[in-house]
């Protein structure tokens, strides 16, 4: 929402901005209220109106960290499946976050189980004494309730061999 960068800032504008982070926030509104001070970026008063509130937003910063994953398997004794779970970690943002995954590259045809959560599963079945390698490139886009979007790429790497 963000408060204006010039002109008048009304009590109603301040309350509406504070409700982004705290939907139950209401009147009375005081310039020494902790959440008003936080919005102004101050630890103590006084607040100079409107200058200290120009362009301020109550929306918490939002970032996304990619966590690539890898795994290996020994094929010496039997057939099987090797898998790993690349993921993302959300930092900040507002409310519930939705996750959307796409496969960017999968040259060795690993099985990729996409979902709507912060991780996916990359797997590959192998035969006894088989050797192989698979690497999958994935992209996750996360969107918070304030419509902030962040995108990060991750990798899932699998290796299987009778010599591990």
Q: What would you say this structure looks like, in words?
A:
Helix content is 11%, strand content 40%. It has helices spanning 11-21, 34-40, and strands at 62-67, 69-74, 80-84, 87-92, 98-105, 111-113, 121-126, 132-143, 149-161. Strand 6 and strand 7 (121-126) form a beta hairpin. The protein folds into two domains: 11-53, no CATH class; 62-161, Sandwich (Immunoglobulin-like). A four-stranded mixed sheet has the order 2-9-8-5, with no helix packed on it. It has a three-stranded antiparallel sheet with strand order 3-7-6, with no helix packed on it. The model has no long low-confidence stretch (mean pLDDT 90). The relative contact order is 0.20. The protein starts with 10 loop residues before the first helix and ends with a strand. The protein has two helices and nine strands, in the order ααβββββββββ. The chain has 164 residues and is mostly beta strands.
Write a concise keyword list for the protein shown above.
four-stranded mixed sheet; three-stranded antiparallel sheet; 40% strand
């Amino acid at each position: 929402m963000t408060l204006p960068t010039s002109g008048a800032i009304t009590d109603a504008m301040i309350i509406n901005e504070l409700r982004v982070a705290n939907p139950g926030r209401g009147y009375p509104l005081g310039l020494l209220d902790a959440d008003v001070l936080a919005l102004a970026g101050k630890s103590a008063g006084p607040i100079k109106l409107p200058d200290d509130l120009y362009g301020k937003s109550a929306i918490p910063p939002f970032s996304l960290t990619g966590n690539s994953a890898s795994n290996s398997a020994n094929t010496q004794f039997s057939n099987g499946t090797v898998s790993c779970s690349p993921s993302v970690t959300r930092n900040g943002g507002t409310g519930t976050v939705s996750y959307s995954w796409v496969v960017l590259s999968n040259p060795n045809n690993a099985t990729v189980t996409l979902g709507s959560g912060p991780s996916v599963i990359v797997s590959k079945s192998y035969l006894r004494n088989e050797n192989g390698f698979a690497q999958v490139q994935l992209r996750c886009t996360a969107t918070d309730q304030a419509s902030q979007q962040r995108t990060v790429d991750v990798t899932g790497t699998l290796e299987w061999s009778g010599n591990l």
